[in-house]
Every structure is written in structure tokens, then in C-alpha cells.
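Tutorial, part two.
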Amino acid sequence: MRTEGDEQRFVTLGRVSGAHGIQGWIKVHSDTSPRENIVEYSPWYLERNGVRSKVKVKAGRRQGKAMVAKLEGCNDRDAAEALTGADIRVLRSQLPETDSPGEYYWADLVGLTVVTVDGQELGTIDQLFETGSNDVIVVKGDRERLVPYIWEQVVKDVDLDAGVMRVDWDPDF
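Running the prediction step on this input gives:
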């Protein structure tokens, strides 16, 4: 669900990990799934040391296990190396809507208040990470809790407008 201000809310999709070749191509670490999707978003907003610049993606492709991309205005190795370490961000409004219940962008979940089905507040979502079997929600409150993101079994409801996620979870865990 999009809300006012999404046009100015940024989501990090990866980072520039180095230069590739001598013609200004960059190596890209992509957090998208599949990783090739990162080059479908344009423009990118490269952010490094608090400085953000808007760049147009001219081309991109898989190179071994990584991705490489060609950006407008990045025409030699020195320019590409200067971008190393920059986060690759896009506007939240550039992302397509999700299709099914229980499917959310992690960026939309971070900051939500987590409440048990009994109404006990556990804290706020600090981050999420993947495991082999399911994603895990890191909830920070009176202490840090790791809650599995299993739709309907553990995560009962997400109300983005209210900023709340309701979970069936024992607060003592």
C-alpha cells in the first residue's frame, strides 16, 4: 500500500561493489530476487557518505554470480571506481504493488509496532533477514526478539496504515 510521502521514501536494493572493465561498467551486489531485477529499476539514487545522486541505468547484465551495470555519465574505470561502496536506492513508488496477502516489502515492515494477539506490545521491527526456511523479524523492545515471518501461523495481520503487525507469539520467547 502506498501512502503520502512514498514518492520521497527510498528503498535500498543493493550496492556498488567495484568497477568492471575500463569503459565505466560497475559491479553490483543486488538484494533483489531474482538479482537481475535490480537493473530494471531506473533511475537509481546512489548514496554514499550522506550524498545522494540520481543516475539513469543504461544497461545491465549478469556476470557470473554478480551483476554489472552501465550508468549514464560513467564512462571510464576511474568514474566507476569512485562509485564503489555506494548504496543503490530507488523511490518506494518505483516498486510494483505486491500480489498476495502476507506479501510485503521489508522496507514497508521496518518500523511497525509488533503486538501479540492478546494485545501485548513487543516492540518495533528493526530489520528482517532470510534463513533457509523462512524470513525472521527482529523486534526491538524491552529486549530483542527474533520472530519467524510465517504468514497466518505466526504473523496474523499487518496494518500498514496503523503501523501495526499482529503476531501469535509468546512474549517470553
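The first helix runs from residue 77 to 82. In part three we will examine how such features are distributed along the chain.
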